[in-house]
Amino acid sequence: MTTLTAPLVSKPTTLWQALFQNRLSWIGIGLLVMIVLVALFAPLIAPYDPLQQNIAYRLEPPSAEFWLGTDTYGRDVLSRLIYGTRVSLLVGFVAVMIAMVVGSALGVIAGYVGGITDRLITGFVDVLLSFPTLLLGLMVAAMLGASLENLIIAIAITEIAPFVRIARAPTIALKQRDFVEAGRSLGYGPGRLMTVHILPNMISEVLVLGALWMATAIRTEASLSFIGLGVPPPAPTWGSMIREGFENILDAWWLTVFPSLAILLTVLALSLLGDALRDANDPKTRSERS
Predict the structure, then answer these.
(1) pLDDT tens digits for 125-180?
(2) Please, which pLDDT band fits residue 15 given cuts at 50, 70 and 90?
(3) Is 290 contained in some domain?
(4) Among residues 4, 201, 210, 222, which one has the fewest Cβ atoms lying within 10 Å of its Cβ?
């Protein structure tokens, strides 16, 4: 039997070439690489144990001994900030991957099958979109309880809807294309047509959305940790560090400023990378920039 290969809408080589021609993408990639390296080598970089308490050094301002100061329990803020990078990146990456897989699968099924299946899935998406992202995450996290696993699940649920929409729209257009019709005539089943012929032609759009929503996931994680629905203490997270320093914000400004800057830089890096990927994936925008 003749093997039918689906033509790819966006060639990876062209996408990467356009990406690296964007100067802002280099800033985002550089910041992101630095943040990932900090998370990977946290045990080697952190000067102190992030959980070690020493009341004698309580609320020490930034100094040569404690570069970013200490918190209300005498713990080194820099060490906790470094280890908090692990939690933020882990939660953001895993939550987005879950939302990407589940949302893309539902979107492709809705667009390809249509009918009652499409109406049920889009109705489910409309329900999710009727709640603000933070409010929905708050509701799910409150029902599941405070833990790392539940936090990831809560954030993943809040991000399924955008991936359903970004996958459904191109599927409706692609299922009418000649290469998909040819696949049907050769006897290929819906599963193969969706996974082998349709999905590869939209994967670039899904990846762009994933980069942008990972930044949202990190902000949501910090917000839920701030109100006590994140990873339980004493595990260091950026959101919980800001919450702990909020009561002493006038006397110990470093407790909230440095974790806030860490969130800002991470979100900025992911946003720059996502915008660069989006521009590189859009031929019209790419031609305007060239």
Answers:
(1) 998 888 888 888 888 888 888 888 989 999 999 999 999 998 988 888 888 777 77
(2) low
(3) no
(4) 4
Tokens of 284: 């019209």
d(C-alpha 88, C-alpha 96), whole Å: 12
Going through 66-208 in order, the beta strands assigned E by DSSP cover: none
Residue 13 lies in a domain: no
> From CA 100, how far away is CA 207, in angstroms rounded?
8
Whole-angstrom Cα distance, residue 8 to residue 75?
53
60 with 68: CB under 8 angstroms?
no
Number of domains in the chain: 1
Domain containing 220 equals 21-58+65-285
CATH number reported for the structural domain that contains residue 156 in this entry? 1.10.3720.10
Q: Which residue has the tokens 């102190």?
A: 48
Would you mind telling me the total number of residues written for the chain in this entry? 290
Query: Looking at the domain assignment, is residue 1 inside a domain?
Result: no
Question: Is there a contact between 155 and 138 (Cβ–Cβ < 8 Å)?
Answer: no
104 token code pair: 């893309």
